[in-house]
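Following up on my earlier thread - several people asked me to post the actual chain instead of describing it. Fair enough. Here it is, all 440 residues.
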Amino acid sequence: MTITRLKLHTDDLSKIALSGKGVSDIRLYGVTGVQDTAHIGNRVADQVERLSVSTSTVAFDFLTIALAVTAADSITPRQEFGEDGWARVFDLDIPLVSPATWMHVKERLEKALGFLSGDVWTLNFRASGRGKPSALNTRKRRVANLNGVDVVSLFSGGMDSWIGVTELVQSGRVPLLVSHAYTGDRGYQNSVAASLKGRIERFPVNASPIRRFAGHDTTMRTRSFNFIAFAAVAADSVASLKTAGTRIPLHVPENGFIALNAPLTHRRLGSLSTRTTHPHYLTELQTIFDEVGLASEIENPYRHKTKGQMLATLKAAGGDTSVAVKTVSCGKWKRKNIQCGHCVPCIIRKSSFLAAGVPDDTPYGRTLTEAIDDYNIHLKDDVMAMAMAVQPASQSHLRRRALSSGPLPQDPVERKGWFDVHEQGLYEVANYLRTQGVIT
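Reply from S.P.:
Thanks for posting it. Predicted structure:
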């Protein structure tokens, strides 16, 4: 078993003794040009300052943990370091301001990360972490105005996040939108945000892991952990302006079908079944937040709705559904700057337009037929898996499949909601596949 050991630092790596063989040194909140090292979060502290209100130490320590996890995930190729090309074993040494705060949730956090990424995680905390940024550096030009903000929402620029924020604004809420501002994402996020009619505040952040050695992993299963850490920092900043003890709603707008993300076939457990917004994962995070005192209340208001139902509800309320085509659903779009049209998220996206009766003028790279007819087996894999998944099945079989992605809530109403959205999501996809001649 190969154990990947990483030591995280807040110091300049060129001025300290490196750990040596068997341990990779990573700089946090700075850059490094030292060979065989890496860095992450170079501009994050400056971006946090733009919130204009100081966050808490516990929130910033959580962000440090998340950056360490993201660094490990992104610089460690599964094919090289994972058992059977998948599960990796990590041992991280992370500097925190208050390591004692996190020791009593260490095991729960390690298990939550294991559920999220499919890896084995050991987290070690030591003193010497970076302190939280100051409330406001007046040299910063673009800052958020958190006065009046009453909710924090993840905002990827995808259809679900756009619908979620649109409905918040329509209901009179003032959201702070938290975005991963990776290269290429900012443009369409700004375009979608500009369509919103009402007051919003923005908090775009870029972790930007950079390695000084060969090899990286593209699955990035822990990306959502970093995303929520940014939102937790923002929520604690908002909470500091409220009455003591106030917890800020942290919206994770994701349709229930893809949040559950039940495996389409028996072989699609693992690398092809992400758990970024799975109810078990979000519940575990909330428990951790409560125990360490983070002022966030994680909510997914769309957990029992399909993407098509979300779009149909917005349409019925008079929302401008034409903006939907500006959103990005495809996980592969950066490769050619166009949504592929045949991956699982693209198929669910297309199905939602049909279900809601909204024209889909999105430019796609391929039709489903073109993907199926292509000689490249990888292009047709998602389409064929979807075609298999929507075949008629007994209710007990569907429930077993839904449970295979992870534990579901024991509350009977919540549990039924997850079973129902799984079945309804498959129904939407089946209807779309019939229109394309993929199934009969």
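The chain has 17 helices and eleven strands. That should answer part of your original question.
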